[in-house]
Amino acid sequence: MDKTSNNRSLIIFFLVTCFIFVSTYLISIFARGYRFSLKNGFTLSSTGIISAVSRPKGASVYIDDQLVTATDDTINLSPGIYNLKINKDGFVPWQKTVTVKPETVYQADIQLFSAVPDLKPITLTGAINPSANVDNTKIAYSIASASATKDNGLYIIETNGLPISLIRGISHQISSNSTTINWSKFTFTFSPNSRQILATNKDKHLNYLLSLDTPINSQKLVDITNDMEKIEKDWQTQTSLIINAKLERLPKEIRPLVSTSSAKDIQPSTNEDKILYLAQIDGDIKKDIITPPPAQSTQIQSRQVKKGNYYVYDTKDDTNFLIGNSSNLQNPSWIPNSNNIIFVENNNLKVVDYDGTNQQTLFASNFDINCVYPWNDGSKIVILTAPYPTAPQNLYAISIK
Prior knowledge:
Layout: H1 2-31, E1 34-37, E2 43-46, E3 48-55, E4 60-63, E5 66-70, E6 73-77, E7 80-87, E8 94-100, E9 105-111, E10 118-121, E11 128-132, E12 138-143, E13 153-158, H2 167-170, E14 172-176, E15 187-190, E16 196-201, E17 206-211, H3 228-247, E18 266-268, E19 274-278, E20 283-284, E21 304-305, E22 309-314, E23 319-325, E24 330-334, E25 340-345, E26 348-353, E27 360-364, E28 372-374, E29 380-385, E30 394-399
Parallel strand pairs: 3-9
Antiparallel strand pairs: 1-2, 3-6, 4-5, 4-7, 7-8, 10-30, 11-12, 12-13, 13-14, 15-16, 16-17, 18-19, 19-22, 20-21, 22-23, 24-25, 25-26, 26-27, 28-29, 29-30
């Protein structure tokens, strides 16, 4: 009796062990993308996975024009080339040709943009000579036509991501006009460290250096024109330090290709794994500078770099993508917290994925192409425009998400 009981226990133990082993094996191969198929008999075939994540959520996912699911979800597909389309009412459709590899996850992390941008004023009494610092977190401008004289002067907006209803509340005056100074006659340039503003009146050959760390008294300002050479040298040193810090994020093989004439010529994305840069010379980027991951992007690369073109290098993927030529692509900049770049082309405000695909127009109207500033949270773009030709120009926020 005991022998029979022991045999039964051994059989149960063996069966449980086999079940655990088989289950673990099946779970592992399913996780790697394998699926059973009845096309050629009962076979186990390798598949790949598309993981489609969108902001906002709940967008429809189409594979080769067939609705298959909604974001956020994963789709198992046989290896091959597919047309992936993401659509949601009220947003511009997103689509891309993707290559699905066996046992590999293609990550589609998609930001959808509003098909009907919402335009709201930030300033109401005009915005004269607006200028932003290098990372677009501060915008300086002047007002000259406020109904109350005390409201005319120099203002600062900090793009700290507050709701649009509060924007006018955080636009604060840092210096009022005086009997000797009318700030509307000046242009403004931020120092590389964003702690100072150089105010310049070319007609009167005046230059004032304004510190943003202390209150500004327009009655006690001193013209620093004679010190301009020293200030420019100091700012060049600051700029060099900023550029060198950005260059260090790139492999050493790419650094000689990158323009260093301005801090705007090299811009890391928010998470700093992608670098937007302007090429200063022609050159080739060799393959496999780093060991690429299995899920490396399969979009067409541009490893033959041409002077005057903007590119994005992905430091994790070891991929290099062409964005456009500087002769027709103006003021490119990352949209914060995204993998998208905004720029101006043919007087249209456009956006493109970091790999150069999926270019879309966000806004097509009359605006100052030199005043395009993404808000710090990536939800809107600040532009300078007027509703009709004789109206004063004001700063407006375009809600794009």
